[in-house]
């Protein structure tokens, strides 16, 4: 189905499931419909199953919008109690169109719960309380995380009662709109993804995937693995390579142990979080005040000290159990925290009963170049009257040199190193590969037989969706154009909107002005971010004959980070003029003699997950006479 046809169907007010492969234009079509509704003053709720997907459409998560949080089920009394929350009640009552993007990652039980909540709060027994619901997504993505022993049949949203009750019109977009700039053997990445969807992967496609292991994609890339154990190992190894003081943050919890355990599983941040300057991190919570979402990535560039008598940070007592910890963690406003300096931490002469509790928290430079401070956040499970049953506090970050394939869903990556050799779940390979836009950014270390297979239930459903979409297409092809236009206008009026051309034109004019202002603002304030990557900035300083230490001081980064930049620069441009940074010949010789000796011994414990020699064996072999940073620098100048 074409995008224009799907848009016409959406405008009639029918409930719709919008699907199609990557690049088919699902998000574009949704945005066109959203703009259409907003221009006609129709109240529309823009939501998604994940924070990342929600930010793509300037929306919120469906869990937050609907008031269900992380819960799978709620008692009737709990649902009725939602009416007492004034803002929630008004939001649900006023909404006329509900959009849920990335529906594949929403559990069937949660879709049923949202359906029930809308019925109760809106006092309307029709599906989803009588509003138009638009579901969008691709069920070849991984299913949502469920309870132990749950099958995909139990998880997929299309198996829910709400799905059937909504009587959705299926609109399966089939045109490809994503431009493919790079091909191999006349195959683009989209060609390969479509072969996986159709269970017809060719020998040529296999060869292209194998050959990608030789692609040079630079040092600044995301690593995707199928198992947490690999991700944790890589992240811990990378963290250990960073010099500088480590900051450790202990999670705390209070309340029902079972609910605390549920919160921990949903939060996915460690109970003990260790960070250093230079650490790659990812936010694990949507924080509107910071304009970051679950999945936003960045790098720790420094630590700042919080200092407040009225809002003390908690003290961690390792002897206490999680459930017995009752101290409150508080987050301070981002701009207020930024004004405080590390000098605050030096004043330790205050009396015990007057002491100000001081804690250093990380400043994160996001991939966009913007900097924010990550302070503790809380996750809460409440009872029917809003009282907390369980609360969990932690700095909302996790290490992110490597992430799991499951966590990558919803992301778009320019470059990724992917390891699918231990794929254990159908669909993991498809999800990992579809994070990229073309083959030039792919470095696939390997894959197994499961990697390119998809869930049979999802494949069967996809086939049926194609058939249902064709039926819908045939029905609409028979309709008179004037009748369709009238249906569009009737739905707008039904929703309390307007078809006044002057109002619509005024809205469109304001949106265009807003767009131009935003583009101008971004051009002026973020020009350096757009034109100069963090490595480009380092490269420019080093080209001016600054030393590693001087560059680190100028950029307020760790020396180890500058050396990683230098390594990436040298890989991209072996002739980059940086001989002023080369250590003396004796040091280089000593390091490489140690390097060669360790290679000859070939002790597995001396190598990291990527097959590179760890720094510590070299450090030990040189009798701790050469610093880690000098070792790093010498290795960069390897002949």
Element layout with pairings:
Layout: H1 3-11, E1 16-20, H2 26-39, E2 44-48, H3 51-56, E3 60-61, H4 62-66, H5 76-81, H6 86-94, E4 97-101, H7 108-122, E5 132-136, H8 152-155, H9 161-165, E6 169-173, H10 189-197, H11 203-211, E7 222-225, H12 228-241, E8 247-250, E9 252-255, H13 257-267, E10 272-275, E11 280-283, E12 297-307, H14 334-338, E13 358-366, E14 371-373, E15 377-382, E16 388-394, E17 397-399, E18 402-404, E19 416-420, H15 428-433, E20 442-447, H16 456-477, H17 481-494, H18 501-525, H19 527-531, H20 534-542, H21 548-555, H22 559-572, H23 585-601, H24 615-621, H25 628-636
Parallel strand pairs: 1-5, 1-6, 2-3, 2-4, 4-5, 7-18, 7-19, 19-20
Antiparallel strand pairs: 8-10, 9-16, 11-12, 11-17, 12-13, 13-14, 15-16
Structural account:
The structure is a single chain. By secondary structure, the protein is α/β, with parallel strands linked by helices. The protein has five domains: about 5-175 and about 455-500, 3-Layer(aba) Sandwich (Rossmann fold), CATH 3.40.50.300; about 200-225 and about 405-445, no CATH class; about 230-400, no CATH class; about 530-575, Arc Repressor Mutant, subunit A; about 580-639. Helices cover about 40% and strands about 15% of the residues. It is built from 25 helices and 20 strands. The strands form five sheets. Strands 3-2-4-5-1-6 form a six-stranded parallel beta sheet. Strands 14-13-12-11-17 form a five-stranded antiparallel beta sheet. Helix 15 links the parallel strand 19 (about 415-420) and strand 20 (about 440-445). Helix 23 packs across helix 25 (about 630-635). The longest helix is centred in the last third of the chain and has 25 residues, at about 500-525. The chain is globular and about 85 Å long.
């Amino acid at each position: 189905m074409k995008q224009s046809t799907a848009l016409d169907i959406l405008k009639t007010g029918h409930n719709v499931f919008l699907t199609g492969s990557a690049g088919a234009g699902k998000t574009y079509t949704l945005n066109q419909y959203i703009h259409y509704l907003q221009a006609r003053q129709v109240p529309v709720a823009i939501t998604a199953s994940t924070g990342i997907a929600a930010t793509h459409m300037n929306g919120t998560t469906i869990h937050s919008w609907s008031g269900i949080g992380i819960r799978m089920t709620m008692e009737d009394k709990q649902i009725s109690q939602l009416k007492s929350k004034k803002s929630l009640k008004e939001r649900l009552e006023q909404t006329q169109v509900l959009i849920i993007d990335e529906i594949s990652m929403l559990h069937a039980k949660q879709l049923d719960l949202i359906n029930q909540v809308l019925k109760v709060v809106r006092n309307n027994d029709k599906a989803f309380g009588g509003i138009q619901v638009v579901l969008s997504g691709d069920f070849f993505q991984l299913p949502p995380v469920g309870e132990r022993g749950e099958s995909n049949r139990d998880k997929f949203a299309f198996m829910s009662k709400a799905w059937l009750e909504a009587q959705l019109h299926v609109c399966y977009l089939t045109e490809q709109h994503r431009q493919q700039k790079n091909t191999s053997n006349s195959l683009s990445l989209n060609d390969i993804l479509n072969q996986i969807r159709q269970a017809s992967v060719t020998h040529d496609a296999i060869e292209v995937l194998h050959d990608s292991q030789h692609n040079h994609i630079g040092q600044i890339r995301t690593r995707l693995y199928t198992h947490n154990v690999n991700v944790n190992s890589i992240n811990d190894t990378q963290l250990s390579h960073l010099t500088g003081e480590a900051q450790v943050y202990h999670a705390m919890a209070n309340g029902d142990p079972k609910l605390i355990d549920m919160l921990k599983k949903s939060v996915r941040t460690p109970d003990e979080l260790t960070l250093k300057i230079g650490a790659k991190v990812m936010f694990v919570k949507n924080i509107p005040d910071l304009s970051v979402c679950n999945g936003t990535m960045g790098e720790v560039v420094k630590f700042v000290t919080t200092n407040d008598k009225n809002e003390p940070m908690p003290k961690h007592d390792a002897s206490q159990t999680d459930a017995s910890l009752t101290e409150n963690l508080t987050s301070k406003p981002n701009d207020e925290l930024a004004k405080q300096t590390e000098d605050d931490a030096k004043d330790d002469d205050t009396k015990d009963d007057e002491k100000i509790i001081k804690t250093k928290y990380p400043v994160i430079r996001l991939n966009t170049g913007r900097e924010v401070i990550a302070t503790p956040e809380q996750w809460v499970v409440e009872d029917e009257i809003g009282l907390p049953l369980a609360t969990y506090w932690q700095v909302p970050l996790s290490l992110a040199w490597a992430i799991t394939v499951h966590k990558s869903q919803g992301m778009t990556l320019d470059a990724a190193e992917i390891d699918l050799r231990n794929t254990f779940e159908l669909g993991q390979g498809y999800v990992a590969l579809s994070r990229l836009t073309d083959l030039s950014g792919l470095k696939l270390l390997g894959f197994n037989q499961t990697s390119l297979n998809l869930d049979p239930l999802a494949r069967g459903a996809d086939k049926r969706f194609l058939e249902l979409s064709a039926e819908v297409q045939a029905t609409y092809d028979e309709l008179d154009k004037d009748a369709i236009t009238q249906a569009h206008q009737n739905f707008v009026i039904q929703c309390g909107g307007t078809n006044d051309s002057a109002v619509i034109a005024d809205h469109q004019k304001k949106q265009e002005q807003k767009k131009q202002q935003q583009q101008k603002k971004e051009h002026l304030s973020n020009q350096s971010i757009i034109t100069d990557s963090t490595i480009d900035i380092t490269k420019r300083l080093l080209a001016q004959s600054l030393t590693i230490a001087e560059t680190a001081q100028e950029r307020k980064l760790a020396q180890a980070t500058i050396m990683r930049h230098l390594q990436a620069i040298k890989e991209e441009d072996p002739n980059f003029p940086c001989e002023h940074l080369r250590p003396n010949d004796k040091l280089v010789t000593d390091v490489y003699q140690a390097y060669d000796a360790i290679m000859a011994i070939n002790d597995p414990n001396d190598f990291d997950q990527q097959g590179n020699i760890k720094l510590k064996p070299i450090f030990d072999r040189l009798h701790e006479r050469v610093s880690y940073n000098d070792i790093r620098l010498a290795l960069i100048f390897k002949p």
